[in-house]
């Protein structure tokens, strides 16, 4: 790995919204939703206008059919009728279904001013039409009481002949009436006339100040015999909101309070733990070991898990840092002694080249010391390589325990190895790594004077247990707590490195296993657990 490979990966610097800003924006959006919703009432208002127009069409169609029947029965044959109905309408006198659908739209249609006042009639209504109006008047009044719609019945000249007001006056100059006098149905949106000032909330609406006007021709013998002029103010939701302004204010206050509570919950459960975790990370990065403690407030279960995982990782890195420092000190000490010995012997031999003061026996003794120290350095180097391999990521593979024991017999001499139990059970470790584990345990027993090694294999839950016993002198109570420490040995003078059991423990831990020292009356007894493959 190069220095460039080991460099920390940096997050690309660019603007990113903070968590507090995102929470604030979301809460603002939640708080604004009720107010934004008021503008969406325009859609509902348009639907109310459609509803009012549709009701006026239905009522006018029913009344027009009744008026048509009345005039067909009572009007004299020579009564003058209005204009010929245009054939393109295709509605009057046809047997096909020709529905009238509401077409007014608050967003699209032009909003006309208030309906013009009635004017004096140029030509008064004829006697026959005044009589017809008198007959129809009670029907219009009764209908208006129930539907709340206003009705006027006009003769073919646009003169009012029935209705609650403007009798005898002309409405022929009104746009929708002029269209109906030509035989076409017309509907218009106009500003409504009200005796009271509209409430302030009406300023948010367009539909609350309008009135729907429809003019439907009454056709007789293909000509306009009369016009039924109707009008109605659509229902609106703002009137109800204004009437219930106290409840609306209470609802708005409730939304504000709820939004505040949500914000506090977000702060306590998300923002605050994140900021505390960031501060803790900075402190640990600067070497503050006191920061390796749980957060004051975790907020949620996920943050508690994240905090614990972070603290575990930081503690592992701190322990690894301590281990590396201690390990480096031990390695330098272990390497220094043989190197010093080799250097001293080499200098003495070099000086003796000229003086020839040493005997052959002395010269051979120095060379033997150099060879022994070089061999010790080789052993230490091999142990360091094995320890690095043991502490690295586990390699894949599985092997039966019996195969590893057979491989152990082929490389270890001078030690009788006995094995029994479930030797065919596979464990999740490669043959080479398991051989290294068993070889160190066997070498440890051999170097301590054992002549026999017994291995009992059995299942224990989801793992395989190896009870490894030797018949040596055992481990003294004072040394039991240190046997797995790196470089701890009682055989340093005879070439012991103190790394064998440390390598075994690291190798087993990397593969999800473990090793423990079991008390025994004679010899050393180790219990090894390995996961089953």
Describe this structure in words.
The protein folds into 3 domains: 40-236, 2-Layer Sandwich (Beta-Lactamase), CATH 3.30.450.20; 301-377, Helix Hairpins (Orthogonal Bundle); 394-531, Heat Shock Protein 90, CATH 3.30.565.10. The chain is rod-shaped. It starts with a helix and ends with a strand. α11 (431-447) runs antiparallel to α12. The protein is α+β, with helices and mostly antiparallel strands and 533 residues long. The chain has helices spanning 3-6, 19-39, 41-74, 127-147, 175-181, 237-243, 245-285, 301-355, 360-391, 401-411, 431-447, 500-510, and strands at 111-112, 119-120, 150-154, 160-163, 169-170, 186-191, 210-220, 223-232, 399-400, 416-421, 426-427, 452-460, 463-470, 514-518, 525-531. It contains 12 helices and 15 strands. A 6-stranded mixed β-sheet has the order 1-6-7-8-3-4. The protein has a 5-stranded mixed β-sheet with strand order 10-12-13-15-14.
Q: Indicate the CATH topology of the largest domain.
A: Beta-Lactamase
- Low-pLDDT ranges: 1-6, 198-207
Overall pLDDT confidence: 80
Structural shape: rod-shaped
Radius of gyration: 52 Å
Number of strands: 15
CATH superfamily grouping of the largest domain? PAS domain
- Name the CATH class of the largest domain: Alpha Beta
Structural class: alpha+beta
Biggest pleated sheet: 6 strands, mixed
């Amino acid at each position: 790995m190069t220095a460039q490979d080991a460099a920390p990966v940096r997050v690309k610097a660019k603007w990113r919204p903070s968590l507090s800003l995102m929470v604030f924006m979301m809460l603002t959006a939640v708080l604004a939703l009720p107010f934004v919703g008021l503008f969406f009432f325009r859609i509902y208002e348009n639907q109310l206008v459609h509803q009012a127009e549709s009701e006026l069409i239905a009522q006018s169609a029913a009344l027009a059919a009744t008026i048509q029947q009345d005039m067909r029965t009572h009007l004299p044959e020579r009564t003058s009728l209005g204009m010929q109905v245009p054939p393109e309408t295709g509605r009057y006198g046809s047997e096909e279904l020709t529905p009238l659908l509401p077409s007014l739209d608050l967003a699209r249609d032009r909003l006309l001013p208030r309906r013009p006042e009635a004017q004096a009639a140029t030509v008064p209504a004829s006697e026959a039409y005044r009589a017809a109006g008198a007959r129809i008047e009670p029907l219009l009044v009764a209908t208006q009481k129930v539907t709340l719609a206003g009705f006027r019945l006009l003769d073919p000249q646009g003169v009012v002949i029935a209705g609650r007001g403007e009798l005898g006056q002309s409405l022929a100059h009104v746009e929708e009436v002029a269209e109906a006098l030509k035989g076409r149905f017309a509907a218009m949106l106009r500003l409504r006339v009200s005796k009271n000032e509209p409430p302030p909330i009406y300023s948010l609406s367009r539909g609350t100040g309008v009135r729907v006007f429809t003019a439907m021709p009454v056709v007789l013998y293909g000509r306009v015999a009369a016009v039924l002029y109707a009008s109605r103010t659509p229902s609106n939701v703002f009137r109800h909101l204004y009437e219930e302004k106290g409840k609306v204010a209470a609802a708005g206050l409730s939304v504000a309070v709820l939004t505040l509570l949500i914000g506090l919950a977000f702060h306590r459960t998300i923002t605050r733990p994140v900021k505390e975790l960031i501060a803790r990370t900075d402190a640990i990065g600067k070497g503050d070991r006191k920061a390796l403690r749980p957060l004051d407030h975790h907020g949620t279960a996920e943050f508690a898990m994240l905090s614990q995982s972070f603290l575990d990782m930081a503690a592992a890195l701190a322990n690894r840092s301590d281990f590396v420092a201690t390990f480096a000190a031990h390695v330098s000490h272990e390497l220094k002694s043989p190197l010093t010995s080799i250097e001293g012997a080499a200098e003495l031999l070099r000086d003796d080249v000229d003086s020839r003061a040493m005997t052959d026996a002395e010269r051979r003794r120095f060379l033997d010391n150099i060879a022994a120290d070089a061999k010790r350095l080789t052993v230490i180097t091999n142990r360091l390589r094995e320890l690095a391999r043991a502490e690295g990521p586990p390699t894949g593979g599985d092997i039966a325990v019996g195969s590893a024991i057979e491989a152990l017999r082929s490389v270890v001499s001078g030690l009788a190895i006995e094995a029994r139990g479930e030797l065919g059970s596979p464990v999740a470790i490669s043959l080479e790594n398991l051989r290294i584990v068993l070889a160190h345990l066997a070498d440890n027993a051999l170097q301590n004077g054992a002549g026999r090694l017994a291995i009992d294999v059995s299942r224990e839950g989801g793992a395989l247990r190896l009870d490894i016993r030797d018949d040596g002198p055992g481990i003294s109570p004072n040394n039991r707590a240190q046997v797995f420490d790196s470089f701890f040995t009682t055989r340093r003078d005879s070439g012991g490195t103190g790394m064998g059991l440390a390598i075994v423990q690291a190798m087993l831990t990397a593969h999800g296993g473990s090793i423990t020292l079991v008390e025994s009356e004679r010899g050393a007894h180790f219990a090894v657990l390995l996961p089953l493959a």
